[in-house]
Amino acid sequence: xxxxxxxxxxxxxxxxxxxxxxxxxxxxxxxxxxxxxxxxxxxxxxxxxxxxxxxxxxxxxxxxxxxxxxxxxxxxxxxxxxxxxxxxxxxxxxxxxxxxxxxxxxxxxxxxxxxxxxxxxxxxxxxxxxxxxxxxxxxxxxxxxxxxxxxxxxxxxxxxxxxxxxxxxxxxxxxxxxxxxxxxxxxxxxxxxxxxxxxxxxxxxxxxxxxxxxxxxxxxxxxxxxxxxxxxxxxxxxxxxxxxxxxxxxxxxxxxxxxxxxxxxxxxxxxxxxx
Length: 275
Ligand SMILES: [Ca+2]
Ligand SMILES: [Ca+2]
What we know:
Blueprint: E1 11-12, E2 17-24, E3 28-37, E4 43-50, E5 56-57, E6 62-64, E7 69-77, E8 82-92, E9 99-109, E10 116-117, E11 122-129, E12 133-142, E13 148-155, E14 161-163, E15 167-169, E16 174-182, E17 187-197, E18 204-214, H1 232-241, H2 259-268
Parallel strand pairs: 2-9, 11-18
Antiparallel strand pairs: 1-3, 3-7, 4-6, 4-8, 5-7, 8-9, 10-12, 12-16, 13-15, 13-17, 14-16, 17-18
Bound molecules: calcium ion (2 copies).
One calcium ion (CA) is lined by residues 223, 225, 227, 229-231, 233-234.
């Protein structure tokens, strides 16, 4: 005589693991599990819990009629980076399987962020002559894990130009910036160069900058009468000596007073001999 079994609930959870994969620190990871009652009597879910601290379930106690299912949402609000693993235990009135265990794993990584690195803290142009353009370079590196956006490079020293001044540096990459200064007027200039970026910890980097621009001095050899000025008086003396071999007027020392000496003389014309 076949015996009719008494009605009983049967829990069915298709998965054996809940894998959150990798989430950024500060974000909340979310996964779902579906629980089905494949039995013939109401299935009472009496508890869902985990040994992974912080894991939450949107519902932990409910009843499922035969042939019905419910989805449970599991959330993990991460705060610090790390690897988290453990189990989720579902308790029920299933007479054959009172607890169901699923493994759970979560990797929380630090959110990607750029990190600006500029090795030098100062840019020194040294001394340049009026009218002379001098270039210096700086290297901007990204030691972070996200793209570094340089949003501007500027200085309170007027005349400085930066090429390029807006660019992106990929992680582990670097960019050389050429700083150009046209020495238009004499003087001592100092100030700062400010580099703006999306580095969350160091949005601006400041470098000091200094430049001395001086009036260029005359070649002492072009000051034929020794009065520290290279002017018309020297020119008239030079004209007299032109074509001779007078060593006093042979500025380039090639043995003759010629056109090359004249060109050297012109370079110093109007200038003062240093000292
Ligand atoms: Ca002179
Ligand atoms: Ca000569």
